[in-house]
Write a structure and sequence with these properties.
Elements (H helix, E strand, L loop, with lengths): L9 H7 L19 E3 L9 E3 L5 H8 L8 E5 L3 E8 L10 E6 L7 E8 L3 H11 L7 H6 L9 E3 L17 E3 L7 H27 L6 E4 L6 H11 L3 E4 L4 H14 L5 H7 L2 E5 L5 H18 L7
Parallel strand pairs: 3-9, 9-10
Antiparallel strand pairs: 1-2, 3-4, 4-6, 5-6, 7-8, 10-11
Helix pairs in contact: 2-7, 3-5, 5-6
């Protein structure tokens, strides 16, 4: 699809040999005209309209009610996916991000976003559990990491399969740097949680460079957001308040919001904002000096992982 025209791209169709008539009509993400209907067990009436249509991460943006320019959400799972609403302006990324169609509420109109994909976040915790066996359960990391004041100077860059946004280096490989005899399993656990936050910082800085908009508040969802200590670390490292909603399954919520908006169950985006509720907010506690020192050493650690494998 041509992101600007919101139509199928003739040149790409020609190169791939795809007849235009094979492709479906491009429709809004929330459409009162509906896309069709489906039968549902126990439903009242003969059919249920299908009228909300959003991709996974785009649905999370909609479910987090990030409807204004500059609002961002981050989903913490096996990997992380962070999206920033850039409004009706299509911003081609020069900083290693993806420019994507976020959602549209009327035919021919689109709200765009910048997206940063991080390959390994929750998977790094799984690696501690399954490969190194220094924790028995992922939930244990919250308690263990708080047993030390910091990571003891250790930094863990989990580039197991290369680095995704904003580096896109398939030849990078994971590294733990800054090790001394002082460092023990608790420091490695904390360094792993910090790696999740620093990778998010990398993407946030790329978003700011592309859009000129600083992330003022980060809305979070996904399995890892249950870790309160991780969320505080994220606020400290990013220097930005972190907000966890009452409903953490924001992808399903976003799809429901889009469908409800289409059939008039909700009347406006403002009503959806009112429906969305905050569970907890974390404010940054680190000083600017602490934040910059950590950021600088993280960048050095990332550089140690780059171009590890020989380029083919």
């Amino acid at each position: 699809m041509d992101l600007k025209k919101l139509e199928w791209d003739d040149e790409i169709l020609r190169r791939l040999g795809i007849p235009r008539q094979m492709l479906p009509e491009i429709r809004p993400s929330s459409d009162p005209d509906t896309y069709g209907a489906t039968a549902a067990e126990g439903a009242v009436g003969s059919a249920v309209p299908v009228c909300g249509d959003l991709g996974d991460q785009q649905a999370a943006v909609f479910g987090q009610t990030c409807y204004d320019v500059g609002e961002a959400k981050n989903t913490y799972g096996t990997g992380n996916f962070m999206l920033l609403n850039t409004g009706k302006e299509l911003i081609p990324s020069k900083s290693g991000l993806l420019t994507t169609a976020c959602y549209g509420l009327r035919k021919g109109e689109c709200i765009y976003a910048l997206e940063g994909s991080i390959a390994i976040t929750g998977a790094a915790v799984q690696w501690l559990r399954d490969n190194l066996r220094i924790i028995a359960d992922a939930a244990e990391t919250e308690k263990v990491a708080q047993e030390v004041e910091d990571s003891g100077g250790a930094y863990f860059v989990p580039a197991f399969s290369g680095l995704f946004a904003p580096y896109w280096d398939m030849y990078a490989r994971g590294a733990i740097v800054g090790l001394t005899r002082y460092v023990d399993r608790r420091h490695l656990v904390r360094a792993t949680l910090e790696s999740v936050c620093y990778q998010t910082l990398d993407v946030a800085e790329a978003m700011e460079a592309d859009s000129g908009v600083q992330v003022s508040t980060l809305k979070v969802d996904g399995g890892m957001v249950k870790n309160n200590f991780l969320m505080q670390l994220q606020a400290d490292i990013l220097g930005t308040p972190v907000v966890r909603p009452t409903v953490a399954e924001t992808t399903a919520l976003g799809a429901s919001y889009a469908a409800g908006l289409a059939v008039g169950f909700w009347s406006s985006l403002d009503e959806l904002r009112s429906n969305w509720q905050v569970d907890r907010t974390w404010e940054p506690q680190w000083s600017a000096e602490e934040r910059e020192t950590g950021r600088s050493k993280w960048k050095k650690a990332v550089q140690r992982t780059r171009d590890w494998e020989e380029k083919q």
